[in-house]
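Customer ticket, subject: "Can you confirm the structure for C-terminal processing protease CtpA/Prc, contains a PDZ domain?"

Message body: Hello, I'm evaluating your service for our small team and ran a test protein. I'd like someone to confirm that this is what the system normally returns, since I don't have a reference to compare against.
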Amino acid sequence: MKNFKVLLLTCVALFALTSCFEDMDDNPISTIEINDFVWKGMNAVYAYKDEITDLANDRFNSNDDYTNYLNEYASPEDLFESLLYLPNDIDEFSVIVPNYLDLEQLLQGTTYSNGMAYGLVKLPNAAEDVIGYVRYVMPNTDAEAKGVTRGMIFNTIDGAAITESNFSALLNPTTYTIGWADYDNNGTTVTLTDDIITSNNETLTLTKSPYTENPILTHNVLNVSGSSIGYLMYNGFRIGNENLDELNNVFAEFQSAGVSDLVLDLRYNGGGSVDTAIWLASMITGQYTGEVFFKEKWNTDILTEFEQSNPEALLNPFVTQMTKRNTNGDITYQQSINSLNLNKVYIITTRNSASASELVINGLSPYIDVVQVGSTTRGKSQASRTIYDSPNLSKENVNPNHKYAMQPLIYEAQNADGYSEFYNGLSPDPTFQISEYYENLGELGNIEERLLAEVIADITGLSRASLSSQEPREPIKQISDQNFKNPFRFDMVDDRPLEFNLIN
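Agent reply: Thanks for trying us out. I re-ran your input and got the following:
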């Protein structure tokens, strides 16, 4: 855990703009005060501050100059978006929200869900129509109770065909009725232009409710041809104590079973806690304690402060214990890590694998053989944190007059070799580039499931027709998934204690 001080080298007279900021106990919050918070927070911590002219420490010549600048933006959202670096390329992930309570729930993994995790795709021969496919079903949900299973196909919601333009409106309501469909690939698995989707007149009504997903969907030990293979389907890097205990217990089971090979299935894992990524990597290995798992590359001001005061704080090593501390530095959770001491790991990925998932792949690569199987990941090497309107930008002493908060990117996570620029994603070796077939997904964790079968064949050396040697399948346009309303579905969160000093 880290405690450090950051110099805010800006107009410290921001707090003296009394002409705009009257007593908030007697007057409603003004847009300019929230805009002040937005600029101040982004100036302090934004990873790409050096690239944004309007965030320069010498941007304003006077208080009036600064005030006029803030007044140019009608809303905090407008100002925030103007400060993002290449939002269609590099930073499509930083977010501002009007209510940090909603943000906190999302980051904890709590959403409204009917339990059906799905993907939305458009086939090459489709003009507008989109189909949905069930990726998996969450336990103890409406979808599970009503018999929804992985691989089911749907093409209508409340009787309306799903399209790119209407899917969010159709799937947003708390309750909706799904129209199921049959998928006929016309006897070809590679060519998609001749595939046929036909409604089968079967429907099902599903209702959402508050739900916190367990990130461990399934795990088991596969004994195949003398090999003891651990398999873990992990869908989110959660930081809750129970989640951490369960993850550590899975690795204890793998230890007891004498697992010699590990398959980490991150195909639907959009990310989560930086700490959890460090701990998972330490569970996979164990022989690199104290070595650098990843390094933090902040903006120049913060990086300089680190290098002058505590350069070691930029380095995040492999560890033997999971330890959480509060803002006072007191230990609130601690457990010894169960490690497998592996020199090789297989990691299943898709375009939905992002952030903390990519951190595990990138961070382990300098040390062990990481065999990536599936398709290219999302391409997000940056961490974020929640920034509140308070003297130290934490929730302590937060401004009571509004609930705006930001979740900006704060640093790039570089592996021990200094690599972090995988903005287009991390790709498997061509030998292991394999796609899921939506018409025949298979059961997760089953040795016959398409992606897992490829891994097992490589581990065991069993003779088979190579899946990866087939002619590449025609590309399918990925539209969205069940998390389309969650702006943090591809996130890597560093919520470790910070101490900011705003120096006059």
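A couple of notes from the result: The first strand starts at residue 95 and ends at 97. The chain is about 20% helix and 25% strand. Feel free to reply with more questions.
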